[in-house]
Design brief:
This protein has 15 helices and no strands. The radius of gyration is 25 Å and the shape is elongated. The protein is 68% helix and 0% strand. The chain starts with a helix and ends with a helix. The longest helix is centred in the first third of the chain and has 32 residues.
Length: 320
Amino acid sequence: MAHALIFTGQQMAAQFKQFSPSDIEELKEIHCASSCLKATCSQLVVQGIEMCRLACGGHGYSQSCGIARLYARSASVEIVEGENHVLWLQCARYLVKCVGMVKAGQSSLPAGVQYLQAWLTCDESISVLNNSHLIKDVSTLLTAFQCRAARQLSSASRELSSQLSRGLSQQQAWNLSHPWLIRAAKAHGEYLIVRGFADILNKPMSSSLKIVLHKEVLLYALWRIEECSGDFLETNTLIPSTLQDIHSLVSELLTELRPEAVRLVDSFAHHDLILRSTLGCYDGDVYRRLFEWAKKAPLNKQEVTDGYHKYLRPLLKAKL
């Protein structure tokens, strides 16, 4: 997940550098993408940190492991610079306008939302992932994320129109449609991340590195489909039998990537002074470091604390 977010961030930064201030339509699309990615990425980061903390068992709750400190610092990101749900709704407002543009026959949508032109006019009975062989193809998985996002956006647009047809004001209809709109914006954010991660495979690199990154991209995309399987099934992007195949392939990819796990983590090159973690140290000597950390605790400065001699020992030796 970390690599997916990093490469997506780099792609977003590159897009912003190439942006022309005079291109108002591109400015709107960049605002939509950045708002959506800030919300989606920050939520994924906080969930990922909590997953790591649980995976470490009791040590994960210790101050010495550093995860609690990392969680406390990251959790606020879901609120600062725009609360996530507010940002998803900003993204949804732009996406709903894109739906109107497609229905009006306009064909000049910005690059980040061009996929809407194909899928909003496509037969919704068509499933993208209807064959077990397709789940091993990155481009097909990317198409599946496009399909799911477009169909959820179409559903949100229909809900908004339904509310308006009841005679409600634009604001009232918008407020009542929030759940549909947020789901659509989240789906768009998921697509942008998978696209950003998959694009890295088009860059020059060694064949050995490309094999590992290809497995990483597959694993990330399939994991997100597993986590959001209800959306993919509801939008008919995925059929139930293929979901079973996805579970099996995820298990296979985890087994294949396990030998690369340490190298993938070390590629971030975080120094021990930055991590300040007994569990994440470079040499892996976890238990020695845990013992050294415990010895530094104030209550362990001496073998028997003063409180024992002052309070407990008199009580234990007293003749009652």
